[in-house]
Q: What sequence folds into this?
């Protein structure tokens, strides 16, 4: 009878696998940016604000707003997020989680 090779990942979760591969921080960063971009886009849509109006409220350009809304662009700053929140009548809250 042939013995089966034991899977080293059996019983672990995907986060463990990503951590072992050194990819967890990058994957989490991309996921967070996608969620933030989605939330901002949803608020803009709900409040029926054009991109031009949103950019004006943020005191920035349309291209800068497009970068903020691009889920693949991770160069967003806290200052930009704060301006977006204010433009939407919201407060920005950043927290650390376990």
A:
């Amino acid at each position: 009878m042939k013995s089966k090779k034991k899977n080293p990942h059996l019983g672990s979760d995907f986060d463990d696998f990503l951590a072992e591969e050194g990819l967890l921080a990058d994957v989490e960063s991309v996921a967070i940016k996608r969620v933030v971009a989605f939330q901002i886009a949803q608020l803009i849509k709900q409040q029926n604000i054009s991109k031009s109006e949103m950019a004006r409220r943020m005191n920035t350009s349309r291209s800068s707003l497009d970068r903020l809304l691009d889920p693949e662009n991770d160069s967003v700053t806290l200052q930009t997020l704060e301006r977006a929140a204010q433009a939407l009548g919201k407060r920005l809250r950043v927290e650390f989680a376990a």
